[in-house]
Automatic annotation (TrEMBL):
The protein's name: Threonine synthase
Cross-referenced InterPro entries: Ser/Thr_Dehydratase, Thr_synthase-like, TrpB-like_PALP, TrpB-like_PALP_sf
Protein species of origin: Bacillus spizizenii
Documented EC number(s): 4.2.3.1
Cofactor(s) this protein requires: pyridoxal 5'-phosphate
Organism domain of life: Bacteria
MF annotations from Gene Ontology: L-serine ammonia-lyase activity; threonine deaminase activity; threonine synthase activity
Originating gene: thrC
Amino acid sequence: MKLVCIDCGQEMSSDDFKYQCSCGGLVDIVHDFSHYDTDHLKHVFHERLSERMSVFASGVWRYKELIYPDLPVESIVTKYEGNTGLYRSEMLSKYTGVRKVYLKAQSENPSGSFKDNGMTVAVSHGKHLGYEKYACTSTGNTSSSLGMYASIANASSYVFVPDKEISINKVLQTAAYGGNVFSIPGTYDDGIRFLEKYSGDFGFYICNSINPFRIEGQKSIIYEIAQYLDWKLPDWIIVPGGALSNATALGKGLRDLYALNFIDKIPRVAIIQAEGASPFHQMISKNKETIDPEPFPYTRASALNIGNPPSWKKARKVLEDTNGITVSVTDEDILDAKAIIDRTGVGCEPASASTAAGLRQLRSQQVIDKDESVLCILTGNILKDTGALHDYHFGKDLNGKFKNNIKSAELSFGKIKSAMETIRDLNGLLKIH
Ligand SMILES: *Cc1c(COP(=O)(O)O)cnc(C)c1O
Ligand SMILES: [Zn+2]
């Protein structure tokens, strides 16, 4: 395993951790899989599905050979992350107009988001190197995840969160795990720059989204989907794009699976951004060479509120490798799509629902056919943003299409009966589309 700069090609050792190359380029982890026997690995991964108490019970470390083969097992800090559900939904098919839609619920991770898939690997690497202080900048989920793993490792965490437009649920969760939360004036992007400058002085192991070990861990999401579907992936994989680490990991995981012959076809990837924070989509759709950072990003999907996504070069490569596309969707579409995903019983936070909103748009533009199979990656849990739930269902100003009001009525047969008559049939509403 080697750490290689994606810009200048310089190689670095994983024991002398460089989060970024001296030239400013991002670091990529390069494995040598040439001696692997795919059938043997399939067998090993299958056997590990019945593990309970070993590190291999984790849905990330099950694939250790493809993620971090050299790491001693004693260094692994795990909460049996991954192992999340894969669902099909009739209601979502109706809403999006595509017959076969899967939901991969990374929202079912221990801290409630896909950040756990990567964080277990970053904190394990930090522990292996002897670090006791971990830091990140975050719109919230990265910090909850780091707070959780640092506490499991009996280490401390320092997280920098913007003082506005983030979900209080995530901040409270982080503090409750014991994370030291710094609420900063400024944006996510300001926090990233601060940590890059001073983490050496503070002795922090940085767990920001470009940490290449996080990317390795997040590859497990697509490994797990492929394994659950007997190594046959759907035609399309749809993922939200904020800092673009998840899209990067998805593409890298697909390349691994294809190179090792686990799969014989690479699905197309669609990266969905929220309109108010869509610099990557702007760059791709306008055919620009470099990204123009958005200085004042705003979307209600707070996990996507990122104006200068650090991993844009890696994500662009994913589009090239997968014949992929980008889409931007409005907050209104995101929140309506979220209401539908919540109604399926699976549920997610706003950012995750951008996937279904994007799918609906791609279907109506005939980019995706009704008979193609599609998988949406749900990144965060339904309870991660209770403010959004409140505003949508009980708020006065927003007029969500699938609002589900609380019905106040006296406890009498007649009153409850007439209140029941006001309940709208969601299936009827869906048919309009
Ligand atoms: C972090 C996050 C995203 C964005 O992922 P990136 O890797 O930053 O593109 C989307 N949804 C949720 C719930 C997140 O926590
Ligand atoms: Zn370099």
